[in-house]
Amino acid sequence: MRRRRTGRPPRPRAKMTLRAKVALLALAAALGGTAGLAPPAPASPAAHATHTSLTDPPPAQEAAAERLTDLVNPFIGTKNEGNTFPGAAVPFGMVQLSPDTGHATGYGYQDTHIRGFSAVHLSGVGCRIGGDLPVLPTTGEVNETDNAKYAAAFSHADEAAHPGYYRVKLGSGITAELTATTRTGRQRFTFPATDKANVLINAGQSLHKGVSSSVEIVDDRTVRAAVTGRGFCQDTRPYTVYTLTRFDRPFAAYGTWEGERVTTGSRASSGTGRNGAWVRFDTRTEPRVEASTAVSYVDADGAGRNLAAEEAGFDRTAEAARAAWEKRLGDVAVQGGSRTLRRTFHSALYRSFLSPNTGSDTDGRYTGWDGKPHEAKGFTYYQNWSLWDTYRTQAQFLALLAPAEARDMALSVLRIDAEGGWLPKWGYGPVETNIMTGDPVTPYLTNAYRHGLLTGHEEEAYKALKRNADGVPPADSPYAGRDGNERYLADGYVPLAPELSRHKPGDSDLQQGASATLEYALADGVLAEMAEALGHHDDARRYADRSRNYRKLFDPATGFFRPRDAKGAFTGSADPAKSPGFHEGTAWQYQWLVPQDLPGMIELIGGREAAEKRLDAFFAYDRLLANPARTAREVWVHGPYDYYNADKYNPQNEPDLIAPYTYLSTGRPWKTTDVVHAALTLFTDTPDGMTGNDDLGTMSSWMVLSAIGVYPVRPGTDVWGLSTPVFDRVELRLDRRWYPHGRFTVTTPGTSATDRYIQTARLDGTAFDRTYLTTAALRRAERLELTVGPKPGHWGTGRSAPVPAIGGTRIG
Burial of 645 by CB count in 10 Å (0-12 exposed, 13-18 middle, 19+ buried)? Predict the structure, then answer.
């Protein structure tokens, strides 16, 4: 999705009491890891440079004991609109405590001032969201109430981060350190010696549109706040974030502000504009101040319980956060490749595990999409659904590498339907945003079904999906759903007819009729598979027939898809690079979005040879062979939000992420590898090392799965296309509850920029000529062995090698 689109060293650790050890183990267990690592030492000014250096260290230096978290650079994507955040979070955490610099989505690497460290961020979104409760340490009198004016200068030379930890020395001389648990953010501020060391708690300025806020000094260590906001790209219903912040020592003074008025000694303030509280400490004898901020989307009591359950000292919290990330990153072990490549890869792996986010409190309560509190019994409730993006890559990534969490995520989506009245499209917290178009929730849930994540809930899911596929939400519902369905079901296509939309906040499928038709047809195809497997045979035939509706858009005069108007006539420019009606893309880019029937689409445009020629033109293949990296950066990529007027591949955005794998269906699997490896050069270990918005891990998951050579070529199902990995060996550590062997290994000895073409493949020792695997095959097998050479071979070129169409040859 587009849219706008050096500190004081830690003190020596005191010997832990038994109670402290028990508390630490409990905290670590809550984070999914085990504690026991050394506390994070503040980095030298040169440390941040090592995060982004392109020069690999000598082997002797690299051989030193290195943790996987040392291979992650959280600053990747903070420049050139990747819109990531460098702050502290744990896997799938509710809290992402991170600096805000004035950028629309939080942190911009080019900025020079920090406005505060706020508690909520989404990785790689294209519009303002989150940024709740920015907190900033200052010294002196409190006079300003606008965080743009009281912002603190900083330099990247005084900044460092690794998963679960962030540190910066501000121009004021104050060092700020951040870490996190699932539902709390822990802050440690080291002040210069002064009797006016302040912490500003800003409830009235967030990244999203503010509705109202309140703040209260509860006692001499505690501040409570509530922030109500609305909107993401366009408008939404309002939602509220509740926070409770507890400091490790009493305040020396305190006050509040409302608008521009600062009132010393005031305990409470509320309003619709600038609003906040400040607390003061004397740091002449003890320079450090610590605080924990807990978040709840339910109520103030929920924030209090979250704080009580997860609060711990800074070092212990940071240790547990790092351990949780070590455990997650250890699920994919790679050998080979340069250290720069491994840093880039592990950083993408890290970003792929950030979202969706925990939505339920420690007591299981969450706010449903009906605005009421509910309890998650037997599962964790998750929220934040960038489904138009994530259904293509990250949903499959999580089904493979985090199936327990992915199951709870799918159950959470079903709770949205049960409590809110319809399935979501793009959800933030407890509200629908209706951003983007098509029907992304269907392939998201059918993917969960095909991976065995909906056991016991199959019919519940199918009922919700069927209602979504065959209907439209009520006019008074906040959901848009498939709002082009009336015409789609009658005519087989969604017209390009914005005048017919019901004008709900967000995007309308009728504004992007061509791409919406293609997305609906894809969704119908994968729903047909689910219906057939569940025994709903009539439905399966009906949905399979509808999955061929992409043909209704094919214009024989141009040889491309084109939108139709409300009367059924082709409309808009006949130039496929300029045709309207394709959301964030062109007809050139969307023509490959027919994974449910690639054989049929290829025949439609003239057969394998014609499709190959068109793909070669689309990827500028001859230029790519001569200079892959330059072609990727100068021919494919333009600006981060430049989506239109293009006849070339755009690896910065979602519509054609699948396109390189189309060569698998034309009998030219080596060309898939050529294009994928060229696209991988766009990912680097520098702040601008992202290809456009990361969209809650979508682009990062593309990088990870393409780098290991196993990619979901038919979203919404359980089919993985094969290409050449960039590592000699990849070992996946899998959950035995879903993958009985517990591991799957891919070996490609000698893979390199020159020796990149698969010659042979063996699955558990047996010759394997298909260009795809199913999840069932992954469960049965333990290893895929590939041999490579400098020239294309015959592997994967047979007629039976590619993925068949849905409804065609049975695969397994």
Answer: exposed
Cβ–Cβ under 8 Å, residues 677 and 756: yes
Q: Residues of 21-57 as b/e, b for ≥16 C-beta within 10 angstroms?
A: eebbeebbebbbbbbebebbebbeeebbeebbbeeee
- The model carries a pTM of 0.93
User: How far is C-alpha 192 from the chain's CA centre?
Assistant: 38
**pLDDT tens sequence across 176-216:** 999 999 999 999 999 999 999 999 999 999 999 999 999 99
Asked whether 510 and 494 are in contact (CB, 8 A), the reply is yes
Residues ≥6 apart with Cβ < 8 Å to 653: 2, 584, 585, 643, 692
**Chain segment 271-306, per-residue pLDDT in tens:** 999 999 999 999 999 999 999 999 999 999 999 999
Which element (helix H / strand E) includes 161? strand 152-162
Residue 785 host element (H or E): strand 783-789
Rounded to whole angstroms, the Cα distance separating 62 from 65 reads 8
Q: Which residue has the tokens 């997860």?
A: 310
Query: How many Å apart are CA 381 and CA 415, to the nearest integer?
Result: 9
How many angstroms separate the first and last alpha carbons of the chain? 33
Give the 3-state DSSP-derived string for 406-472, with helices as H, strands as E and coil as C. Answer: HHHHHHHHHHHHHHHCCCCCEEECCEECCCCCCCCHHHHHHHHHHCCCCCCCHHHHHHHHHHHHHCC
| Sheet arrangement for strand 385-386 | 385-386, 426-428, 431-432
Is 264 in a helix, a strand, or coil?
A: strand
Q: Which two tokens mark 710?
A: 């196993």
Rounded distance between C-alpha atoms, residue 277 and residue 200, angstroms: 6
Dist. CA 763–CA 771, nearest whole Å = 12
Strand 165-170 versus strand 152-162 pairing type: antiparallel
The count of other CB atoms within 10 Å of the CB of residue 248 is 16
